[in-house]
Design goal:
The chain is α/β, with parallel strands linked by helices. The chain contains nine helices and ten strands.
């Protein structure tokens, strides 16, 4: 289980998180939604130590991780992989070598052994036939699937997705959705997904948390959020203009 407990974070005078309390159960596909700038990405970056809270606690199972040193965060980061919005692949390396890199660095596998394992990971995301291509030769959706394959190399228990379908065409976006859902159903990976993609949110989420003005405004299943009469929630759910939400 992942627990965010009374989490506070500000940048200068701007309050981003103002006492966020959330629990994510094992094996869930858990979405964090809200208007731009409400702190969705800021929240998940705290889990892997890319940001530190001003106050509050973050627990990963029975360990508080919000106060760990860089050295002690290393095993946490192996358990919690992160897939960034822009894939962050090395353009000078083939797809298979991109995926093999963490295997060579963290599991000390030899070159050929790491590449063989990387090909198996690429097969998991239906990219094995393009293993020897370079990222620049692929579309955004394919690069995203390679990034997911790389994230899976160390067999994480948790995967954090930061806007995984942003900039993707509808077909590629739905393929990424199915892949995230499959990770939970087949591999029992817990996923936290930051997104504003309404199709993703209401198709693959087990539960959804909506952030608004630094706090959790709503929490529940897709059906429960649709049924809420809260005008802020309904404005987001209907995909209407978000001006008032961002005030």
């Amino acid at each position: 289980m992942i627990r965010f407990m009374s989490l506070h974070k500000r940048f200068g005078e701007k309050v981003i998180l103002d006492g966020v309390d959330l629990e994510v159960g094992r094996g869930e596909v858990f979405f964090v939604i809200g208007a731009s700038g409400v702190g969705k990405s800021v929240l998940i970056k705290h889990l892997v130590g890319l940001l530190r809270p001003d106050s509050g606690e973050i627990w990963l199972d029975d360990q508080e991780v919000s106060r760990l040193s860089e050295r002690d965060l290393a095993p946490v980061r192996k358990r919690c992989a992160m897939v960034f919005q822009h894939s962050t692949l090395f353009d000078s390396m083939s797809c298979v070598d991109n995926v093999a890199l963490p295997l060579r660095k963290h599991r000390a596998l030899g070159h050929e052994e790491a590449r063989a394992e990387a090909r198996r990971r690429l097969a998991d995301v239906h990219m094995e036939e393009l293993a020897d291509r370079f990222p620049s030769e692929l579309g955004d959706g394919m690069r995203k699937r390679v990034a997911i394959a790389r994230a899976l190399t160390l067999e994480p228990e948790y995967v954090l997705f930061d806007e995984p379908t942003t900039s993707l065409d509808p077909i590629s976006a739905r393929r990424v959705d199915r892949l995230i859902r499959d990770l939970s159903d087949r591999l029992h990976v817990t996923s936290i997904v930051v997104s504003h993609d309404l199709t993703s949110i209401f198709t693959i989420a087990d539960r959804i948390a909506m952030l608004y003005q630094g706090k959790v405004r709503a929490l529940g299943t897709p059906a429960e959020l649709r049924a809420l009469e809260d005008p802020v929630v309904q404005q987001f759910v209907r995909g209407e203009a978000r001006g008032p939400m961002e005030t």
